[in-house]
Amino acid sequence: MEQRTIAILEKQRQDLVVRVLKKHEEAEAGRLLTERILAGISEFFLLFDKDFNLLQANHGFVPGRKYNPSSPDSADKGDLSLHHLFAPEASKRIQTQLQAGDTSEIETELQVNDAEVPVRLRPQVHRTPGGSILYILLCTDLSEFYQLMERIREGQKQLMHSSRLASLGEMTAGIGHELTQPLNTILLLARNVLKVLDAPSDQQHLIRENLELIVDRAERAGAIITTMRSFGRRVEGDLAVVDINALLQKILHFLSGQLRIHEVEIVQDLVDQALPVWAIEVRLEQVFLNLVQNAVQAMGETEHPCLRLGTRLQERLDLQSMRYETCVVVQVQDNGVGMDEKLQKKIFDPFFTTRINGGGMGLGLALVDRIVREFSGFIDIVSSPGQGSCFSVWLPLHASACQVMKDNQS
User: Fold this and answer.
1) Which residue of 8, 178, 338, 399 has the smallest Cβ count within 10 Å?
2) pLDDT tens digit sequence for 127-165
3) Which residue range(s) make up the domain with 273?
4) What is the pLDDT of residues 321-364, one digit of tens each?
5) Which of 141, 158, 184 is the last residue of a domain?
6) Which of 141, 171, 197 is the last residue of a domain?
7) Same domain, 183 and 299
8) Are residues 66 and 78 both part of a single domain?
9) What crossing angle do the helices spanning 364-374 and 143-170 adopt, rounded to 10°?
10) What is the DSSP string of 222-281?
11) Is the same domain home to 106 and 20?
12) Which residue in 281, 307, 312 sits closest to 293, CA to CA?
């Protein structure tokens, strides 16, 4: 009887050992599978406990403390917590968001190997069957994306500079005309002075008048050359408040010679107040310069070309925020050849141009559309064949001006 009991107990012991070994193998297999999955994730995977101490990370994450994710018992693991991996403000924001159960994405910088890596975080909150809380952060490295965006911005700057130089080339005839007038005047007045000096009579007042006129015309010619240099120089400003009306006056002044050569009548309908928008002035300058030059080109065959420039304030519904906002609307209208609906759908496509004989690269309006969208605006077109075209540029009014308007209304 005792032998039989011993045999039964031995059999149960062996079965228990086998089950324990199987459980151990299953757990080990599960651990290895988890490690392989984590190793295959291209993103950073960070697992924290309820106190935001780092429990596990994949091999893609190698912080400056040399934490080894494949060693669960690593002594360094306990040294790492959320505030070691992110800046204080970012760490506090992430902790608050996770504790509130908010899983919306966050863009911040992760500190890896003594460097700050731009990342997009996708937080998750997990509760284990035992009631423990675990916090998970999936971090997408945005370094390459930011580098790509920087290259795109640099390419856009170069493209805009090329466009400005092309515009400068188109204005050469007008600029030459602008310089010819003061130079001819200077030459004529200088000859008059020489004649007066050769005469025996005292004509000091006449000499002074002629010299003052020479100085005035020389300064005017110098101002034209200075404007040409500043326009041809590659410049890139910062975001600032830009007065649309002042900018339009500046462009009309710069194009005055070209407009006179083409005998274009200018009709201005600008509101009698400053119209501030938040933008980069040199880029907006390129927008309206391009639109005005396109209008002049469209009126090449028009008997009495007329360019109308108008500004106004108008409310519109922002479909993203579903709120009404005040916009500055700039209209550039011509009485040129106009466009049909098919052509209107193509004019903002890159490398599409209506100019013949290689008269343009087809990048002007594509660049204009991109710049306007960059400043949260858009462009409307109203055009008919033979009836001319009207381009309306919508840009949000700067917040300071909106506040002044509200104060005046109250």
Assistant:
1) 8
2) 877 778 888 888 888 878 778 777 777 766 666 666 666
3) 239-410
4) 678 889 999 999 999 999 888 888 888 776 556 655 444 444 46
5) 141
6) 141
7) no
8) yes
9) 130
10) HHHHHHHHHHHS-----SEEEEHHHHHHHHHHHTHHHHHHTT-EEEEE--SS--EEEE-H
11) no
12) 307
